[in-house]
Specification:
Layout: H1 8-16, H2 23-27, E1 32-36, H3 58-68, E2 73-76, H4 81-88, E3 95-97, E4 102-104, E5 110-111, H5 117-129, E6 137-140, E7 145-148, H6 156-170, E8 174-179, E9 182-187, H7 192-199, E10 209-214, H8 220-228, E11 232-236, E12 246-248, H9 251-262
Parallel strand pairs: 1-2, 1-10, 2-3, 10-11, 11-12
Antiparallel strand pairs: 3-4, 4-5, 6-7, 7-9, 8-9
Helix pairs in contact: 1-9, 3-9, 5-6, 7-8
Bound molecules: the ligand O=P(O)(O)OC[C@H]1O[C@H](O[C@H]2O[C@H](CO)[C@@H](O)[C@H](O)[C@H]2O)[C@H](O)[C@@H](O)[C@@H]1O and magnesium ion.
């Protein structure tokens, strides 16, 4: 029974869940691994980075689905690990954070990035330079930093210039990452695609084909990996250009499909 969004479109999505692109998870749960982006995919976008919330039932459904897949379900996000973890507590799923640069494996071991003094100085300087730019938010994620302009699109060009010169100061270990109303500097050592490949070398992901689901530019790297490995790539929401093989219309609809897939059979 649907508890939210009873539109015809949503019901059609639900009816198609078993027959649609994700129905394969029910048919062959031992053959597939699921890699899920967070913002704009599992949870709805909000005006500010801290303004997001986890919809009721999502944690329980992810837990059930993970069990159904023998644990082969991982989050792959631009967030840092502590923020993502508090969104899905008490679950502690395998996860790649900072766009793939950091990982927590299924066995709980961590692969983290140390931020150095120079990067801390750079983040402080970004905050100082933009302090009077009303609506701009600098999100400190440890070894990555995001400059948000969702509430202040008039600052986009200025932020592009500031982030470009900050990237030069950060040096070759970092790269620029564009996203929805955001410009980020993140470690260049791994992408979301590389994180998916790394998970696929480890139990319980090894030997399975990946299904990657995301909504933004950063997710294109994991779409490409899924396509290259004979898996499946799904974009949430329409995009002018994407490597994804299929589209799911919104995060709401994806959650409804996941809820159905998570139901006991
Ligand atoms: O890879 P994701 O899990 O999708 O994370 C990507 C970025 O998401 C967050 O920013 C985006 O969501 C915010 C909250 O809805 C929104 O206000 C912002 O405009 C979006 O760009 C997050 O703040 C970033 O750190 C993530 O990298
Ligand atoms: Mg996203």
């Amino acid at each position: 029974m649907l508890t939210t969004d009873t539109s015809r479109e949503a019901e059609a999505d639900l009816a198609q869940a078993a027959d649609g692109p994700l129905g394969i998870l029910l048919a062959e749960p031992d053959n597939w691994a699921l890699f899920l982006d967070i913002d704009g995919t599992l949870i709805d976008l909000a005006e500010t980075p801290d303004g997001v919330s986890t919809p009721p039932g999502l944690v329980e459904n992810l837990d059930r689905l993970s069990q159904r897949l023998g644990g082969a379900l991982a989050l792959v996000t631009g967030r840092n690990l502590p923020f993502a973890d508090q969104l899905f507590a008490p679950l502690s799923l395998p996860i790649a954070g900072l766009h793939g640069a950091e990982r927590r494996r299924t066995d709980g071991t961590l692969d983290l990035v140390e931020e150095d003094d120079a990067f801390q100085t750079l983040k402080r300087s970004l905050t100082r330079v933009t302090v009077d730019w009303e609506g701009v938010i600098i999100e400190d994620k440890g070894a990555a930093v995001a400059a948000h302009f969702r509430q202040a699109p008039q600052w986009e060009q200025s932020l592009e210039a500031v982030m470009a010169s900050a990237l030069e100061a950060a040096g070759p270990g970092y790269t620029l990452q564009r996203g929805k109303m955001v410009i980020e500097i993140r470690p260049s050592r791994a992408s979301k695609g590389a994180a998916v490949r790394a998970f696929l070398e480890e139990a319980p992901f090894a030997g399975r084909k990946p299904i990657t689901i995301g909504d933004d530019l950063t997710d294109e790297a994991m779409f490409k990996v899924a396509n290259d490995l004979g898996g499946m790539s799904i974009r949430v929401g329409e995009a002018d250009q994407t490597e994804a093989q299929a589209i799911i219309s919104s995060a709401v609809h994806l959650r409804q499909i996941l809820a159905q897939l998570a139901q006991p059979s």
